[in-house]
Structure formats: C-alpha cells, structure tokens
Write a structure and sequence with these properties.
56 strands; elongated; single chain
Length: 643
C-alpha cells in the first residue's frame, strides 16, 4: 500500500505549505433572552426563556439543559416554595394556550387555561402582559392580558388563580392592563397600569382598586434591605420611583438615568438590588445597564455587553454576580465594577450554525442557518444580521443553499424547498418528490438544483418548481467539475458514479466503497478525492486520472471523527490540499490525504456542523455549536522530491 502512495506522490511537482492565521468569530448571536428567573427556595436553580425554548440550570449556571421547545415564551415565574413549580407564558397571537405549568422542574408541561380566553373565531386569544406570584400565598397567581393592537379587547383583563393556575377568574376593575407587579413585602398590594384607568393599585389583593393620578410602580418593586419602609420601583415613565412610607405614596423626581448627552433614558422594567450593600442596578431598553451606590441619587453606566438593550437581569448576592438577558443572548459578570462579560453557554440551539452557504459570486456574503434562525454576513463573517424568512417554515429548515445569480434556497423538512430569487422580497415554496438529506445548487447554472435522498437523485432546471428523476440508489455526496459543467461525480450506496451529460446517464467508477464526501480539485479536475468506508475501514480514496483508477489509504479515526456527515473541500489552488470537517473538528492535508493535521485544536470545545470555502479560496468558514468561525488560509508552494 505504501508503494502505491509513493507512486502518486511521484507525479506531484509541488506541495503547498499553508500558513493559517488565527480563527475568528463574529457570531451569529444566540438570540433574544427575554426571561431569567431564580428559584427563591434554591438559589442554584435558574430558568431562562430563549428564542429556541426554556433552559434550566441546577448549579447556578455552570451547566444547562433544555426543558421545553420554542413557543414564544417571554414570561417565567417560579413558585417561591418549590423550585420545580414553574409557570411559562407564551406571547404569540395564535389562538392556542398561552399559560403552561410544570410541577417537576420541566420534565412535563401542561396548559393551565381553565377560565382564560384561549381564542376562537369570535374571541381573540390572550395578550399576556405580566405574571406575578403572591409571595405570601404562592397558590395565588395574577395574570395580566392587554388589549390587542387590532382593537379587540374582549380577552383583556386581570385574571387570578387561587390553585396554582388550575382555575382562573377575572378580577373586576382592571379592563385592559399593560403592566403588573406586586409588593414583595406587602403582597396584598398590587400595582397595574391600565389602558383605560391609568395607574391603579389594590391594597386588598385585587378586591378593590383606586387611583389618584400619582406615579405608581407597575413593572417591578424592590424593598431596601436597610430601611423596611423604603421601596424602589419602575413604572410607565423613565424615572426611578421611590417610597419612604412602605409604598403608601411614591415620588419620581428623585433621580433619572441619563444618556451621556443628558437626555432621559427609558427603562425596560429591569431593577435589581444588592441586599448586602444596597447598591441598585437598573436596565434601560435604549441605553443599557446602570448602577447606583447612593440609593438612586446618581448613576454610572456599566460597560461592555451591558450597553446592549437589557431585557432581564438577576443579581446573586452570594457571589456579587450579575446575569443579564439581551437581544444577543445571556451574559454574566462577576464583581465590581461588572465591566467584563462572558456569554453564558446555556446550550441555545439558535447559536448552532448547522448549515453554511457561501454566495458563489460574492466572496464576502455568507449565510448561516441555525435552529429556527437564518443569518447573513456581507463582510466575510465579521458581523451578522438576521435574514428575513417566514417564521413558521423556518423552524423546519435543515439546509441553506446559495445558487448562481444570487438566488437563495432552504431545504425544509420533510420535502419542500423555499426559494428567494435575487432581488425579490417574497419567498416561494415548492415541493420535492422525495425526502432529501442533501440539496445542492449548480454553481455555474442559475436555477439548476439537485436533491439527494433515500429515493435517489432528482434534478430541477427551474429553481425547484419541477423535478426529474436523475439517479437511483441512496446518494450521499455530489461533486461538480469546476471546469466542465456537464461532469458530475456521485457517491451512492457502495459505489461512486460519474456523469458527463449533467445527470442524464451514469457510469460506475468505484465499487465496494461507501463515500461520505467527494471533492474535485479546481486546479486539476483529474484529481478526485473521496472519503468513506471500504471493507469496514475508514479510508481516503484518490484518483489522478478523473476516476479511471484509484488508490486507497487508511485515515485515523480521530480525523474521521464520530460517525455522521462530513464535509470534504479541495483547495482552490493546490490539488494536494484538502479540508475535512467532521463533528469533532476541522483537519487539513497537504499531501493528498496521507497525513492530516488539526486546524481547530486550540478552539473552545464545540461541535462542528458545517464548513465552506469562500469563492476566492482564501477563507475557510466552519459552522459550530458556538457560531461561525473563520480562518484565513494563505498558501505558498515549494518543490518536493520525486519518488
């Protein structure tokens, strides 16, 4: 076997020496985190509501697990007696249950909607605006539902449950609430901002309501740890509200959080207090996070990630640690002055870059598909932005493909294709005649698509509108000849086939070889490399004559990685250089597959889902469980000895 390797090495005249720069990542981000709650009965138990579901930590954020799928959850509440009793509130407009409960820490969820409007042809669904648990009697829960934007207010109101959400009844006197909070020290005192009645309060648990037109905190109330009569609150004005008489009266002219230009900031309802020192933290939807060490008289901005909009916040007095939820994820910072922020790896699947697609005509444009989210970068991965997509279908999208002419495609489970034609604003949906595992766009011909699955290979000449059967079997990989648009090489079952008439007829060129990846060298299309299994062993197959003859060499299991899909890409300039992506990392060979070196050994532990090489051949992009990472791959050559 070694003599065969020397034979094909003797045909080489040059070997590349790659000079890899450092990997970099610009995202995409992990998505919005709207709710973070800590269990009062067990401070190590945290719950987070993210774009792709609900996550739970039982070790104060060191590790996380998903406990619920995405359902537009934006409000969470934990029973102060039992860390396993959690309420989750959905804020979507669909006529479906909006309130859910778990009694076992997220193992099982059930809707708790008896007595709540759930939506019908004549009655709109709830529009949840807040949920609070009575700290004095946690069986009692209050839920606010606002009037809808379209003028339907039948489902608006304040609802109360006395049995942990099993049954609900409407509270009189609160027609259209938009904000709701409760006094933590005096739980019979409830504050509401109502669209009709304005700022109102109840001092008897919702039995009666009053308003005198004064400022009231309707988003959050916190008590001062050193002064039992002092309260801090946030309402529907950009002021910190304070009370020195236990909440009987409030004033809002004490302090304002200011921008650097002196204009007043607006708050997002985030207020925390360090009960060891009395320091206040307040979050602004428009200008980030601030702290005050003098009971709110003056404020200082907290730097770093805290300058983002702040949706939610927790403070852990045990470790002086802040946790914030932002539009880009959840972050933590330990200790004064809270300037250094670290992303909290909750396992958010929306960070998974499961599929990458580079625009064949624009090297700096790259698309990344994660769980329920599509992103685009126009600067080679330095920054990312969400791409517009129909949300209901995006949750089932499994692959993004960029075609010739700037057209964009999404393979949607189980058998559909979404197409966004270059210059268009609306996506078009078409069906597939099989359930594919792979969608490939011809990089040279606009509108030509190939789809491969258990039913064989199908091809479309009109961007997926119609399809024809092109090959039987169970295809795994497809490669295009970069110099001959009619020539394709296909791995199907235990053989490799070639077509020279654009998938009309096929000829078998290798048998007894199940290839998972195929690459045709752009610098010399006669050089074909494949990676797969032969006679039960992982091997690299190499042909120097377009597939007429082949040489097989073993490949180490740590290079091949865990069993699953791989990506094999040939270097644009050197036919001996290839890049291999498996779940465990990215490897490179500069000798046609005889030896491989890891390119990702220094990166954080993560799973590698996808990989692409930009059209210039100078930047390698890897899609991982921690976003997209990019590596410059400049190359030079030197002469090597012939064998």
């Amino acid at each position: 076997m070694r003599s065969a390797a020397c034979l094909f090495l003797s045909l080489l005249t040059i070997a590349p020496i790659a000079r890899a720069h450092a990997w970099r990542t610009g995202g995409p981000d992990a998505g919005e985190v709207r709710a973070i709650v800590r269990a009062a009965s067990d401070a190590d138990v945290l719950y987070v509501a993210a774009d792709d579901g609900i996550y739970k930590s039982m070790d104060n954020g060191a590790s996380w697990r998903a406990i619920a799928d995405p359902d537009a959850i934006a409000l969470l509440a934990v029973d102060p007696r039992d860390a396993n009793v959690v309420y989750a509130v959905r804020v979507g407009d669909e006529p479906a249950p909006h309130v859910f409960r778990t009694l076992d820490g997220g193992l099982h969820w059930e809707p708790v909607v008896h007595g709540l409007p759930t939506g019908s042809a004549f009655v709109p669904p709830l529009r949840p605006a807040g949920i609070v648990i009575d700290p004095g009697n946690p069986d009692v829960i209050y839920l606010a539902s606002a009037c809808r934007d379209d003028g339907w207010c039948v489902s608006g109101g304040l609802f109360r449950s006395s049995d942990q959400g099993s049954h609900w009844s409407r509270v009189d006197g609160v027609p259209w609430p938009v904000e709701l909070t409760i006094d933590p020290e005096e739980p019979h005192t409830i504050y509401v901002t109502d669209m009709l009645r304005g700022r109102i309060r109840s001092d008897d648990g919702g039995g009666s309501w009053e308003s005198d037109g004064s400022l009231l905190p309707s988003r959050v109330v916190r008590s001062d740890p050193f002064d039992p009569s002092r309260r801090y609150g946030i309402g529907d004005v950009s002021l910190l509200l304070t009370s020195d008489d236990g909440g009987d009266t409030w004033k809002g002219d004490v302090a304002r959080v200011l921008f650097t230009d002196g204009t007043v900031g607006s708050f997002s309802g985030v207020l925390e207090i360090d009960r060891q020192t009395g320091r206040l933290f307040i979050g602004s939807a428009s200008s980030g996070l601030f702290r005050s060490g003098d009971r709110g008289q003056s404020w200082l901005p907290i730097g770093g990630t805290a300058r983002e909009p702040i949706w939610q916040m927790l403070f852990d007095e045990r470790t002086a640690t802040l946790i914030i939820g932002t539009p880009t994820g959840v972050y933590t910072s330990s200790g004064f002055p809270w300037e250094n922020w670290t992303p909290l790896a909750i396992g958010n699947r929306t960070l998974d870059a499961r599929s990458l697609a580079g625009d064949p005509t624009r090297p700096e444009t790259l698309y990344s598909l994660s769980y329920g989210r599509l992103f685009v970068t126009h600067d080679g991965g330095h920054s990312w932005n969400p791409a517009p997509i129909p949300p209901p279908l995006l949750l089932n999208a499994e692959q993004v493909v960029a075609g010739a002419g700037g057209d964009l495609y999404l393979r949607v489970h189980p058998n559909a294709v979404l197409r966004l034609t270059a210059g268009a604003e609306e996506w078009e949906l078409s069906s597939l005649p099989l359930n594919p595992r792979l969608l490939v766009a011809d990089p040279t011909t606009r509108g030509r698509l190939y789809a491969a699955g258990n039913g064989g290979l199908v091809v479309s000449e009109d961007s997926g509108s119609t399809w024809r059967h092109a090959a039987p079997g169970n295809p795994h990989a497809l490669a295009f000849d970069p110099r001959d648009a009619d020539r394709l090489i296909l791995a199907a079952g235990s053989e490799v086939l070639v077509s020279v008439d654009r998938a009309v007829t096929w000829t078998s060129i290798v048998s007894d070889f199940g290839a998972d990846g195929i690459a045709i060298s752009p610098s010399d299309p006669n050089v074909v490399t494949a990676l797969g299994r032969r006679y039960g062993k992982d091997v690299v197959a190499r042909s120097l004559d377009g597939g007429a003859t082949w040489i097989f060499e073993p490949i180490a299991s740590e290079v091949r990685g865990p069993y699953g899909e791989i990506t094999l890409i040939a270097d644009r300039f050197h036919h001996n250089t290839l890049y291999l992506r498996s779940g465990s990392g990215v490897h490179r060979t500069t000798d046609g597959g005889l030896t491989w070196s890891s390119l990702t050994s220094g990166l954080p532990p993560q799973y590698y889902y996808s990989m692409t090489l930009d059209p210039t051949g100078r930047t390698l992009h890897a899609g991982t469980s921690l976003g997209v990472w990019s590596l410059g791959v400049a190359v030079r050559t030197r002469s090597v000895r012939r064998f």
